[in-house]
What we know:
By secondary structure, the protein is of the alpha/beta class. It is 33% helix and 20% strand. It has a 9-stranded mixed β-sheet, sandwiched between helices. Strand 3 (20-25), helix 1 and strand 4 form a beta-alpha-beta unit. The longest helix has 15 residues, at 68-82.
Amino acid sequence: MSVILLDQQVVHYEVLGRGRPVIFLHGWVGSWRYWIPVMQAASISYRAYAIDLWGFGDSAKWVQNYSLDRQVRLVDGFLNEMGIGRVVLVGHGLGAIVATLYAMRNPDIVDRLMAVSYPMEQGQINARLRNAAPAELADWLLSKSTLTEPVLTDAPKADRDALLTSFNNMALPELKEANVALKTPRLLINGQNDQAIFPPEFDSSLSLPEQTHAVLFEQSGHFPMMDETNKFNRLMIDFLSLPSGESPRQLQLKEEWRRRVR
């Protein structure tokens, strides 16, 4: 287990591979561990890091750290501690929100951003995600299998206050601004069958920033990286392989990407 200390508090992370850095940030249910298959795919060409956010997994449980601002500061502190400059962020749920806020505040550091199961507005969040205990959420959103075991195992480690605090912070003006003004290349991925974050209506997709592209996974729920692992990994590698600064709208649309928005 690898850890660093930020403000005298333990931050747990794991790392695989060599190359340009990619940081994986987990969501409200689980920890770094469900990224392992994705990290293995990325580590062939990239150095893949996965972090436990404050209040989750094996990172410190301290309620003063649970605001979205503090989670963003964790990412910043981690990058500074590890000596990482320009970076790609891949976030899921809560991790996608933290990654988006970090990109808004640090456009010169974030080369591109992949936001999975990202709620573009608070109305997309199922009230059950706010109200149930972490272990109950894992049982609700996942069937039992070897692939989902990391989430089911680590979900009870989460401090429920970490979830509640993040939901109470969702009104940050920067999140609304990001929907129309984010300049960092961003790929949005949602599962058609997501019960926790209702898929956004993309009829208004022309209002998305020019650097944003969205893909809907028709056979996925809240965890596209586990529901359609091979498809997710191929799309991720295609996205990571784009030239720096290039919009993901320039992705070659393979047949499996054609159910999408702009």
